[in-house]
Amino acid sequence: MLGLQSYGSSSENDSDNEQSKDATKELTAHLQPVDKTHSLSTTLAVCAAPDVVPMGTAAVSRTLDPTLKEVAYNPRYEEMYAPVQGPEHPDLTMQQRAPRNTLAGYVEKAHINAFEFENQRRTFHTYGYALDPTVDNEADGQSFVGDLQSAYDDNGKTVFEAPKPKKMRKQEKNDNPEDVEGFLGPWGKYENEISVAKPNEQERAELDELLSKRHKRGRIPEDKPLEEKSTLHIKDAYDYQGRSYLHAPHDLGVNLRSNAPPPKCFLPKAHIHTWTGHNKGISSIRWFPKTAHLLLSGSMDCRVKLWEVYGDRRCVRTFSGHRQAIKDIAWNNKGSHFLSASYDRYIKLWDAETGDVVSRFTTRKMPFCVKFHPDNSKQHLFVAGTSDKKIICWDTRSGDIVQEYDRHLGSVSTITFVDDNRRFVTTSDDKSMRIWEWDIPVDMKYIADPTMHSMPAVTLAPNGKWMACQSLDNKIVIFSALNRFKMNRKKTFTGHMVSGYACQLDFSPDMSYVVSGDGDGKCYIWDWKTTKMYKKWQAHDSVCISALWHPHEASKLVTAGWDGQIKYWD
């Protein structure tokens, strides 16, 4: 601005020009380069963090570490009893304010001579006595604890005062290394040492009595063979063409031989029939393979019954041959034979048409689940999960065990074939799931999680892609039945009470619904896609142990309960 002001002035006035130049230099001095002769960087060392006296220095007190043993100055009371960190808590009691180095309080180091303490400890350990620590130092040192007689005999001498050694038994010695045969070294026997301990007559009698009791307790009593029989309850066992009741009828309006499921399934609304005949609770029910025109039921009254599903819905045949309750039943692919597993430790193969027992299998352990191999080429093989943590494969032609899968840590609950029957999945009371390749006795995958519970009932979905598992934390959890066998955490069905019960569950044929019983006798139906509960009703007076959807009917399902009844719903 000064330069512009002087632009139009007369050049004759030199003094005015010099003044204006000096003023311009002063105003633009900060824009000029710094003269090195006057630079601070060449003359001073600048400290970026100088020592600054804080505000209120008089209020800042010296701090003391509570663990200090020695202080080099005389601290004030306020410094010694200041809070350890931060302001003092206003609500602490005197006991809570007190310093502590243990959970219970403050422990001071006692003034004990370390040598004397170790001396008395070793003396007590070696000779069984030591000086009484409760006696004052002024006492005569004649009060002892422990073996008083030894203390007075040895005059209270310690291990460092070397009391007389105890009399030791004489030991045979031969330390001559040249005597190869007779060399004893430190392993010589003592005098009068007995190297073999034999029981006398009284001890032998007691041992024999004890062993006989143990043998009786561990041995399973061999009962007389039970009469295995079956009773036919219908007169027309064969039709006019000579076909038995195992042949599916054609005149029902339903194609029982089709492989396609119903196009759309609906919720059942009414109770249409009750099958009665079992004296005790039902434990398992199974549809006749593929056609489902017959229903097989195993009960706790030791009997298996075959029922008609269509027509008059009569009881066709009763199979009796077990001493204890039936645990599981399984059809073969044709429906000509079935297996029954019982708590009497036997698995029996029955002819469904004649009612005869074809063969019997046992390992003297309880079988909890049985399943035929689903391949038509391997119908002579079946697997059973037992109470001794094994899965055992039998050959029905020879009656021999052909494979054992022994990896579980608890009794085996279920066996489910997946992946075109090349693999099978087992669950156990050890709260784990294992996946096996067929005929390879080492599990290829082990699934266990701290949040998992035991899963005593597993059902494969009709499309073969999912497994529904009844978990004992009152949930139905879904696992993938393909490569990874991963739990689908988005699909969990809840609302029922199954803790302690192996309630069998099922899918509707079109996979729209999931159905299950529960421990209160109710039957529940959920939507598969949304996992919402659609329906529940009181189906039985006791536990509803099984619920199966008919594979060819859109809205018919059967439930079985511990009240001994099997009910049909539509």
From TrEMBL:
Placement of WD repeats on the sequence: 275-309, 319-360, 405-437, 505-536, 537-570
Gene3D superfamilies cross-referenced by the UniProt entry: YVTN repeat-like/Quinoprotein amine dehydrogenase
A cellular component term, taken from the record's GO annotations: catalytic step 2 spliceosome
Main localization (coarse): nucleus
Chain segments annotated as coiled-coil in the UniProt record: none
Recorded superkingdom: Eukaryota
Transmembrane segments: none
Localization of this protein: Nucleus
Any GO MF annotation of the entry: mRNA binding
Entry annotated with the keyword Metal-binding: no
Protein name: Pre-mRNA-processing factor 17
Taxonomy of the source species: Eukaryota, Metazoa, Ecdysozoa, Arthropoda, Hexapoda
